[in-house]
Each structure stands twice: as C-alpha cells, then as structure tokens.
C-alpha cells in the first residue's frame, strides 16, 4: 500500500529543513560582503568598554550573547560590550530579547578614550526595553526602537517580552535609519541642523563629544538587566 504525504506537509518539511542556522551567513550574504560580529560560540571580536577582554558576565547562552546578572552578583564585573573594530558606514542587523522589566540598548559611533567613562557619553542609542513594565516605557523617546532621548519612533513595533525582535540600523554618511521588526522607526542625519536641534532638546545637550564621531565602536549595553543578542551581522558600505 502506498502512502502519500500531503503537499502542505511536504512544504512544511522543506521549510523546516532549509531554515538558516543561528549566527551564520547565507551564500548570498557572503557574496554581498556581510560579516558576522558574533560567531555563536564565544565573545571573540568583542571586549568590555575600556578593558582588554570581554567581562565574564557576558556569556553565550543558546546561541545568543547573554548578560548574566547572577554572574555579576557572584563578582564578575559588568560593563557594556563593544566591538574590537570601529565602523563608519554600514548596515547592522541583529536580534534582541529583553528580560521582564529590562532595559538595554544598541549604542553606535562610540569613541573609546580615557576621557569618556561610558559608551553613551559619545554614542547615540537605539533603545531596547520592556516597554510595558520598565519605567522608561512611559517616557517619550525612551521606547524600543526610539533614537534614545533624541527622536521618537514613527510607530511602535516591539514584540512582547520573551520574543525576539529584529533590528536593522543603517548609517551612511551620517544618515541614520532604524528598522524594528521590519518597520522603519527613525530617520535623521547626524551633524545637520535637525540633529543639532534634537541634541539641544535632549539630556545630551551639554555633553561634549556626544554624537560627534563619525566612526566608532558598536556597543551592547549593560543596563543592569538580563538581555540577549544574536545573529549580529554587519555590511560595510
């Protein structure tokens, strides 16, 4: 007796077996010049801000870079994780997941120098947040997908806590564009009159050096809460 697999079931099998593995590049991505910033196995290519190596609080967990708050309680130093290399013109894609009530961020154009004690003193940020339960969720320009404290998202696109959110940040000749889960949330250009006005109306208005560096490191923020990042890829433009 012959047995037939329904067409729908066959298509589902095809999709599941062809799904891309975490933290890998497709042939098309490789051909286009994309590079992995996280290999899925360790923190190679990253270090804690103003340190030589990555803090032990940043671990690999189920294929993601995870900030382990228990490790910090046990004595492992925390701190923002930054790329070893600096970037100016690029497209950055990644996925993030935040803990309940958690706060983090993707900070870019970070100038690592002794006079700047933290990444956010020079680098603008795409906010990562549990908008429902963190107090910042009630503050304008502090929600997920916002250009933190500078420009509010055009629409709210974040998924609930526990779900993965997909990010794309494009920075080309100062022009910034943010996407969250396929929705364009922010667009502006650094160094323009609009940018200067955004800074002047923010908490950063008196911060010398903030948003002034065209080239810099990319950082994943330790804001004291559990957070996970994976599939971190960059295309230099």
Automatic annotation (TrEMBL):
Q: Which GO terms describe its molecular function?
A: hydrolase activity
> Which Pfam families does the UniProt record give?
3keto-disac_hyd (PF06439)
Q: Which residues form the 3-keto-alpha-glucoside-1,2-lyase/3-keto-2-hydroxy-glucal hydratase domain?
A: 33-234
Judging by the UniProt lineage, the source's domain of life is Bacteria
Protein name according to UniProt: DUF1080 domain-containing protein
């Amino acid at each position: 007796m012959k047995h037939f697999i329904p067409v729908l079931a066959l298509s589902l099998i095809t999709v599941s077996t062809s799904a891309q593995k975490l933290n890998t590049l497709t042939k098309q991505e490789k051909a286009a010049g994309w590079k992995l910033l996280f290999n899925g196995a360790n923190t190679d290519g990253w270090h804690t801000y103003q340190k030589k190596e990555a803090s032990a609080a940043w671990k690999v967990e189920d294929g993601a870079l995870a900030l382990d708050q228990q490790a910090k309680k046990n004595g492992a130093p925390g701190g923002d994780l930054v790329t070893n290399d600096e970037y100016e013109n690029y497209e950055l894609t990644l996925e993030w997941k935040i803990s309940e009530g958690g706060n983090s961020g993707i900070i870019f154009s970070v100038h690592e120098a002794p006079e700047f004690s933290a990444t956010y003193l020079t680098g603008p940020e795409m906010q990562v947040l549990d908008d429902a339960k963190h107090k910042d969720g009630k503050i304008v320009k502090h929600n997920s997908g916002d250009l933190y404290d500078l420009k509010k998202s055009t629409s709210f696109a974040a998924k609930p806590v526990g779900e993965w959110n997909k990010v794309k940040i494009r920075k080309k000749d100062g022009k910034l564009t943010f996407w969250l889960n396929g929705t364009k949330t922010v667009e502006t250009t650094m160094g323009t009159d609009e940018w200067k006005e955004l800074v002047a109306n923010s908490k950063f208005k008196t911060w010398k050096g903030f948003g002034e560096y065209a080239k810099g490191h990319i950082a994943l923020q330790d804001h004291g809460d559990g957070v996970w990042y994976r599939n971190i890829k960059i295309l230099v433009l």
